[in-house]
Each structure stands twice: as C-alpha cells, then as structure tokens.
Amino acid sequence: MYVYHYRLFDRYRKPVVSLAVLADLEAAWRPRTYRYLLRLVRRRFGEGVAASSRPGLADIHDPAVLEDLGEILLDCADGAAWLAGLESAGR
C-alpha cells in the first residue's frame, strides 16, 4: 500500500489519501503507529529533528492527533516549527 501511495504522489504531484479497511476479528483494535510520520520528518528536516521528534510521537496514541500532525508537518517551514507544533499537539 505504501508503494502505491508514494508512486501516485511521485507521478501526479498531488496529495494522495490511502484508505485501509480494517477487517480484524477484534473490533476495538486500531493501529497505533507513527513510523510513517517519523520517516517524513526525517526526510524533510533531517535525522536530528527526527530523533528529537521520536519521544513526542511515541506518547501520542490518538489517530486523530497523528493526522493533525501530518497536516502540521506539511505546513512547517523548518524543523523548529515542526518541533513546536509537535509539542503543542502532544499537550
């Protein structure tokens, strides 16, 4: 799914939305991962900012907050702005 996502973005240079249908037997299960977001932070701002982001991202378990952080990441001009946005979202 990740490969299709980034290939579509690379080809059309438009925002892409990926949708996964969770068909797990346990209705309450939800993915709680931030690895993709951390990868984007590393790619955009470098390893130092990604390392500083890791603890804050690990403390966030609400998917809606992670989604909001994705929007913040797109709007940030630099790593300092991203870290400030991450800090305010984690409160």
Keywords:
single chain, 0% strand, 91 residues
Describe the 3D structure:
Helices cover 64% and strands 0% of the residues. It is mainly α and 91 residues long. The chain has a domain at 33-91. The protein starts with a helix and ends with a helix. The relative contact order is 0.12.
SSE order, as H and E?
Answer: HHHHH
Low-pLDDT runs of 5+ residues are none
Decide which structural class fits the backbone. Answer: mainly alpha
| Overall geometric form | globular
- How many helices does DSSP assign? 5
The average pLDDT value, as a whole number, equals 85
Cα(first) to Cα(last) distance is 31 Å
Instruction: Give the DSSP E fraction (strand runs of 2 or more residues).
Output: under 5%
| Sheet with most strands | none
- Give the tally of β-strands: 0
Percent helix: 55-70%
Radius of gyration: 14 Å
Brief overview:
The protein is mostly helical and about 90 residues long.
Break the fold down into its secondary structure elements and pairings.
Layout (H helix, E strand, L loop, with lengths): L1 H11 L22 H11 L1 H12 L4 H13 L3 H11 L2
